[in-house]
Design a protein that fits this description.
- This protein has 487 residues and is mainly α.
- Helix 1 runs antiparallel to helix 2, helix 4 packs antiparallel against helix 5 and helix 9 packs antiparallel against helix 10.
- It is globular, with a radius of gyration of 23 Å.
């Protein structure tokens, strides 16, 4: 166990190096974009490469540590493993089997795919958004409290996990970069800020409403309080792991437990006002879409900036409420699920959806910062036809991986649960994602569409990818077999 802990300690240091490399690379890409005279392209790329190298080493340490843990778990039960069995257990636990590792893996896959795109097409401007999204994913991973590596449950002890999950995550990374290229195409072709700002504001309002639900329309934001308990370690016999889980209860007349949601004081009004302002900004922008370019002086820009300020206050208050949460009293008449006990408090472990709110915040900030620079950005971009071609090639590389991942998932489901398809939320939304991208390819290949319409579909499809990866995994569509988090 000493060598395993040493690997994990090295992993922590390597992750810090990767984060530092990405952060400085982001500053380099952004500074080069803001001040064209600064020759920081190679410097930023070198730091991105350094970050990916450290990130790769970090994932390797997690993979090796997980493999050794799997072997120790078998040997602790008295199993005598052959050489081939030891090899299998060393590789059978890849670094994406829980929410923490999955977010880190997706960030790594995105950066690797970006560096390939930069190497092939020299499109360094994509680096600003690629590195920013990688930092968001790794930042979200830092919010996850359960970072422990435990032996896999029997349902996950399969070679399918090496194919099915990796295929999906890499395809999502490619789709994200395809959406970035499509967005740059829209900027390069002179798409008005009114279209871009209106769409961004509408998507921001929609995501906030999905996170807040119907209660947000009444000015109330609810989240699941957490409770701390201990579970026996599968690896260390006699030891226990401390875990924070969301509180569940039995609704009246139902025998199935549901997540208990309680109001977070003061947060709902801020989020609701932000939603209203985003919707108002979208309406103002879309009504002015045929008018002259207004930039930062436009009314729509000012409304969205105001909405961003309100959202910032709401997000800050939400974090404050979580960090300083008092004990929460359960309303009378609520039947708590058996075995769950107080004290109940708000916690990051039961509010991973905080990451979606942070994503909305980051995307809005990105729009506000880049709008004044749109002409400079446009001038630095390659020919529009090249951007369109890159978008198509990146998406057509990701779609077969998504297809294989879904098919392999069905085969694994049949092996594990005795059915190929069960309309689990993750399965359903993966299929929706597949259909949307199939539609993009159909319009390009069969209908011969070119220009802005396919680019708009690619950007819309990215929103579907975000919801499929984060919204479904975090339980916004109900808890299923693929739900990582709670809340």
């Amino acid at each position: 166990m000493g060598s395993i802990q040493g690997l994990l300690d090295w992993g922590v240091a390597l992750r810090i190096v990767a984060l530092t490399g990405y952060a400085i690379a982001f500053l380099g890409y952004a500074a080069r974009l803001a001040v064209t005279k600064l020759k920081l392209d190679r410097f930023a790329t070198a730091l991105a490469v350094l970050g990916v190298a450290a990130h790769t080493a970090y994932l390797v340490t997690r993979w090796i540590a997980a493999g050794r843990i799997e072997i120790l778990a078998r040997e602790a039960t008295g199993d005598i493993l052959s050489g081939s069995e030891r090899f299998w257990y060393m590789v059978s636990h890849p670094p994406y089997t829980n929410l923490y590792d999955a977010l880190n893996f997706v960030a790594w896959a995105m950066m690797v795919c970006y560096l390939i795109i930069e190497r092939k097409w020299g499109l360094r401007i994509v680096g600003v958004l690629a590195v920013a999204l990688a930092l968001v994913a790794m930042g979200e991973a830092s919010l996850v409290t359960d970072k422990q590596i435990e032996p896999l449950v029997p349902a996950l002890q399969s070679y399918w996990i090496l194919i099915h999950v990796a295929m999906l995550f890499v395809s999502y990374s490619l789709f994200t970069l395809g959406a970035v290229c499509a967005l740059l195409y829209l900027v390069r072709t002179g798409t008005a800020s009114a279209w871009l700002g209106g769409t961004q504001a509408a998507v921001a309002a929609l995501l906030l409403l999905l996170v807040g639900g119907w209660d947000l329309l009444l000015g109330t934001y609810k989240m699941a309080p957490g409770w701390v308990h201990q579970i026996p370690s599968q690896l260390h016999k006699g030891r226990f792991l401390e875990v924070t889980s969301a509180v569940h209860y039995f609704p009246e007349g139902s025998e199935r437990a549901a997540k208990l949601l309680v109001p977070v004081p003061g947060v709902g009004p801020f989020l609701l006002v932000a939603v209203v302002l985003f919707i108002a900004g979208a309406i103002v922008y879309l009504r002015a879409r045929k008018g002259p370019e207004q930039g930062v002086s436009g009314l729509g820009y000012k409304i969205i900036a105001l909405g961003f300020g309100v959202l910032t206050l709401g997000l800050a208050l939400l974090v404050y409420r979580i960090v300083n949460s008092p004990e929460i009293a359960i309303p009378q008449g609520i039947k708590i699920a058996p075995g769950e006990h107080g004290p109940f408090r708000f916690s990051l472990a039961s509010n991973y959806a905080l990451g979606l709110i942070a994503l909305v915040w980051g995307l809005t900030l990105g729009f506000l910062v880049t709008t004044p620079l749109r002409y400079r950005i446009s001038a630095s971009l390659p020919d529009a036809r090249k951007l369109e071609d890159i978008t198509y090639k990146v998406i057509i590389a990701g779609w077969p991986l998504l297809t294989i991942g879904i098919v392999m998932g069905g085969m694994w489901a049949n092996e594990a649960w005795g059915r190929f398809w069960g309309w689990d939320p993750k399965e359903t939304w993966a299929l929706i994602t597949w259909v949307v991208y199939a539609g993009y390819l159909h319009t390009r290949i069969t209908l011969g569409w070119a220009g802005r319409r396919p680019a708009v579909i690619a950007v819309f499809a990215f929103a579907v990818v975000v919801f499929t990866f984060m919204g479904v995994n975090l339980g916004l569509t109900g808890e299923g077999l693929h739900t990582y988090g709670a809340g």
